[in-house]
Amino acid sequence: xxxxxxxxxxxxxxxxxxxxxxxxxxxxxxxxxxxxxxxxxxxxxxxxxxxxxxxxxxxxx
Length: 61
Known about the structure:
three-stranded antiparallel beta sheet, 3 strands
């Protein structure tokens, strides 16, 4: 999955960028008070994309 598509999915489901790092961006879901790191690679493995969504307690893409 493309990183841009994953970010778009996260933001549509109420997640916000908390901070940027060198290798990861940290996104937070304030409704469920959960956060997770999103790697700053062009492609994100589908398994990792599902895990990120599960961590933030939003529906899978």
